[in-house]
Amino acid sequence: MSVAALRREIFDGFTGVTDLAEDLEFLTPSAAAVFVLGGSQNGWIEWVNNDGETLNQVYRSEDK
């Protein structure tokens, strides 16, 4: 099942803030971002830590 189809199945048109009843694992940060935000997403820049750093900055940056 695609991430978009899983999102539709779980949320079924619901909009707003909600909690998931169980943890879900995704193969990539982008797949997780698609699930949460819908549509095409780049998870390496969508996910940020408390300091405002993206996953790309934390894990891929040559400056670190």
Descriptive account of the structure:
The chain is an all-alpha fold and 64 residues long. The chain has four helices and no strands. The chain has helices spanning 3-11, 29-37, 43-46, 55-60. α1 runs parallel beside α2 (29-37).
In short:
This protein has four helices and no strands.
Spatial extent as radius of gyration: 13 Å
Uncertain regions spanning at least 5 consecutive residues? none
Broad structural category: mainly alpha
How far the N terminus sits from the C terminus, by CA atoms, comes to 37 Å
Strand content: under 5%
Look at the structure and give the mean pLDDT: 89
Helix content: 40-55%
Overall shape: it is: elongated
Question: How would a crystallographer describe the biggest sheet?
Answer: none
Number of strands: 0
Helix and strand element order = HHHH
Helix and strand layout, with pairings?
Elements: H1 3-11, H2 29-37, H3 43-46, H4 55-60
Task: Jot down its keywords.
elongated, 64 residues, 4 helices, 0% strand, mainly alpha
